[in-house]
Amino acid sequence: MKHVLSLSVLGLAVLLASAAFAESAGEKVFNQKCAMCHKVKGKGGAIGPDLSKISGKMAEPQLREKLINPKKSNANSTMPAFATLPKNDMSALLTYMKGLK
Ligand code: HEC
After folding, report:
1. Ligand 1 centre from 38 Cα, in Å?
2. 11 CA distance to ligand 1 centroid (A)?
3. Given ligand 1 and candidates 66, 68, 82, 97, which is best to mutate, with the most ligand atoms within 8 Å of its CB?
4. On the CB side of 19, how many CA atoms lie within 13 Å of its CA?
5. Which residue CA neighbors atom 15 of ligand 1 most closely?
6. Burial (Cβ within 10 Å: 0-12, 13-18, ≥19) of residue 66
7. What is the pLDDT of residues 8-17, one digit of tens each?
8. Is the pLDDT assigned to residue 74 strictly greater than 70?
9. 18 has pLDDT over 70
């Protein structure tokens, strides 16, 4: 019986820990598609600008446009276009980016 109890306590601890560290859907997209070039809060690549405070600089419509057509705001941009990103991923990503300010 004691055994069962300690196992369930352990199970609960693991559950809580994974909830605390779980990334949001948008953060996951960011880590997969953007972090190799962009830093957020000290983590990521340095090919593009640091995006830790990007929402203080660009509003959602501008961000969306940048993702769909990076060359529109900067003809020499080397950033790839994300126009084919699934709708769900795009909106999760934009929600995540709105929190970066
Ligand atoms: C291959 C590298 C690369 C990848 C991958 C990449 N970017 Fe970029 N990004 C850049 C570069 C270089 C710039 C700066 C030139 C420009 O303005 O386009 C930039 C600029 C930006 C800007 C404008 C920043 C500013 O301060 O003006 C935003 C916003 C942005 N990227 C978001 C993203 C997001 C979100 C993703 C993932 C979906 C992403 N980027 C993926 C290279 C990349």
Report:
1. 7
2. 40
3. 66
4. 6
5. 77
6. buried
7. 887 777 776 6
8. yes
9. no
Residue with tokens 């997969």: 32
**What sign has the CA pseudo-torsion 85, 83, 49, 57?**
negative
**37 ligand 1 Cβ < 6 A:** yes
CA atoms within 13 A on the CB side of 14: 6
Among 37, 55, 65, 68, say which to mutate for ligand 1: greatest number of ligand atoms within 8 Å of CB.
37
Q: Measure the CA–CA gap between 37 and 75, rounded to whole angstroms.
A: 18
Q: State the average pLDDT for the chain.
A: 91
Q: What angle do CA 18, 21, 25 make, to 5 degrees?
A: 105
